[in-house]
Amino acid sequence: MKLDELIKMSNDYGANSNYVLAGGGNTSVKSESKLYVKCSGAQLATMTSDEIVEMDRQKLNQILQKQYSTDDIVREREYLVDIMSAITDSNKKKRPSVEALLHNLFSYRYVLHIHPTLINGLTCSKDGKEAAKRLFGKDVLWIPSCKPGYILAQYCYEQMSEFKKKYGYTVKIMLLQNHGIFISADTVEEINDLFKNIEAALKKEVKKEPREEEIKDEKKEKTAEFLTGIMERKVIPVYMKEAGEYMKNTETVQPLLSPYTPDYIVYCGPYPLYLEDMNDVKETMRNFERENGMLPKIILVEGDGVYIMENNLDKAVRAKMLFEDAVKIVVYAESFGGAKPMSEELIQFIVHWEAESYRSSKI
């Protein structure tokens, strides 16, 4: 099978930071017997044929008929064995996207899964489900927040089956709460058209757009130098003006204290550290590490600004991008009843999920 169209679609969407950041999102194309899906951890913007995994569709279908353990850790271990056994690629070291099973469920040839900021303003909002129904009706299937991987695929399988029974055709567009969008069609051109229609409808609904304005100042640079010296890790400031506006006090900062998407957790950690003052920073950091099992990657300083702390500059830059994306999601969500973060149960699942640990190791 020629994979040129899949690669071009992946690169085109991946190159747009409004649609996907870093290693987020995944794509696939299928024949009657094979699924060709992006490798876990690969970046859509630069994806090549070497980062596509060939899989047996029949074996993937059989996974949905199996009974796995109810224990999260045991189930995911069992599921991983079956997913890896479905690989028919000659390179056995490749690992498919965590959503490979879900890609296989769509009856159409191509599948695009991305995390557009505007669309996640809807999927990460309190009134997202109602707004989606009002705007798109039966053209879109809304999937509430649930554990990704096997659990998500199993739930989508049930919902997609019900959709087909009800309407007589298979779904092409799914909106996943606190996650993103799936679009499937037999041509890339149709996927592009479907995506543009969703985007256009949401743009008409948005009452407030996030601003890209940055304000650089010496105070933030000095704070970053101070934190770098204390923690012996690279700390960089976030100059996004809109992010700084949430740092006024403990009330205004609330929307930025919890994650909204799995990608945020991968690149920014589950929780930021909020400092009301700069006294005893090192001890505060130690307490945070004891409570959370890790140091914070995002530091929010009241009345000052936002800082990214990582062990190298590349990782710090990625975390900065995901944090700024979260700010934009919060702003967009104001048009749909306000922002709704992930549940604590889902946050903890992703923090301890082996599949995301694997993806994190690739960045």
What is the C-level CATH assignment of the largest domain? Alpha Beta
Shape: globular
Mean pLDDT: 93
- CATH homologous superfamily descriptor of the largest domain: Class II aldolase/adducin N-terminal domain
Written as H for each helix and E for each strand, in order along the chain, the element string is HEEEHHHEHHEHEEHHEHHEHEEHHH
Number of helices: 15
Polypeptide structure, described:
This protein is α+β, with helices and mostly antiparallel strands and 363 residues long. It has two domains: 4-203, Class II aldolase/adducin N-terminal domain (L-fuculose-1-phosphate Aldolase, 3-Layer(aba) Sandwich), CATH 3.40.225.10; 218-344 and 356-361, Class II aldolase/adducin N-terminal domain (L-fuculose-1-phosphate Aldolase, 3-Layer(aba) Sandwich), CATH 3.40.225.10. Helix content is 45%, strand content 14%. The strands form two sheets. It has a seven-stranded mixed sheet, sandwiched between helices. A four-stranded mixed sheet has the order 8-11-10-9, with helices on both faces. Helix 5 crosses helix 13 (313-333) and helix 11 runs antiparallel to helix 13. The protein is globular, with a radius of gyration of 21 Å. 44% of the residues are buried. The mean pLDDT is 93.
